[in-house]
Amino acid sequence: MNLPAESVVAASSAWSWVADNATTVETAEYLLVRSPDYFTHPLSLAWFHPAGPVEAGVAAVLDQARRFGLATLYWKVRLDSPPGVMDLLTARGATVVETLDVLALDLRHGAPALPPPTRDVEVRWGTDAATARDSSEVGAAVFGGGVPPDERIAQNAKRDSASVPAGEGGVIVAYVGGTPVGAAGVMMADGAARLWGGAVVESARGQGVYRALLAARLAYGAAHGAVMALVKARVETSGPILRRAGFLSYGQELTYNVPLA
Predict the structure, then answer these.
(1) Is the separation of the CB atoms in 182 and 220 below 8 Å?
(2) Alpha helices of 79-127 — where are they, by DSSP H?
(3) Cβ 77 vs Cβ 85: under 8 Å
(4) Buried b vs exposed e over 101-137: b needs ≥16 C-beta within 10 Å?
């Protein structure tokens, strides 16, 4: 049985992750996020719900964004974004840098059985500093950006050492022969297992590493009461794997690189 589309769209629209060490500007109409410089996209717009004309709302966001003194703003056009936003951004020289499929899987009857990887893959939760660092290094290698400082990595490990056993989620790292080759996260919220950050280094792709990370996160979500698994997947990489695992698409979200000069 398929999940109701409206429930998936609502769960997707409710998902706005912000690092706890980020600087934010939040109004009733938008949320701007200035993340630390080691993030791939230091300045991004998490959501946009203008109360008045869309064009005036876009102008207000860009005026505020320029105050951070950065060259670009990464604007996420979500499923619940108002019509006309994409045309307005394009008219200001914005270009699409990422297209994500909003995919969901019904977990009401448990997690599905997935084919095993072709290699021996060990998965570990990032509840200690060494594993947390491995997660960050894999993410930087795949997505770009940098590795957080040691103090931040220790904080991440301490957070996950509490959140994983509490059923709130955390980060998983995949190892082949003791070498970290993949990482992915899961966060539990309102009955949804939000899957994020799935990454596999290029040399280990095609061996089922991503599938092993996916199976571990789906099992965790189902064990902690999730009715759905929700993921915003890159259309050219993780999207096809997720579809083969039974995920269905409920739309796409685009990220625009908006020049601020």
Answers:
(1) no
(2) 85-91
(3) yes
(4) bbbbbbbeeebbebeebeeebebbbbbeeebbbbbbb
Q: What are phi and psi of 62, to 5 degrees?
A: -65, -35
Report the chain (261 residues): mean pLDDT per 10 consecutive residues.
89 89 96 93 95 97 97 95 95 95 96 92 97 97 93 96 98 97 97 96 95 97 97 90 94 96 84
What are the structure tokens assigned to 67, written together? 């105050």
Write down the pTM of the prediction.
0.89
Burial degree of 8 (CB within 10 A; 0-12, 13-18, 19+)? buried
Whether domain 109-226 has CATH 3.40.630.30: yes
Rounded to 5°, angle at Cα 212 from 177 and 199: 85
If we measure between CA atoms, which residue out of 219, 256, 254 comes closest to residue 78? 254
Positive or negative: CA dihedral 132, 138, 142, 145? positive
> Residue 99: helix, strand or coil by DSSP?
strand
What is the residue extent of each domain of the chain? 5-101+254-259, 109-226
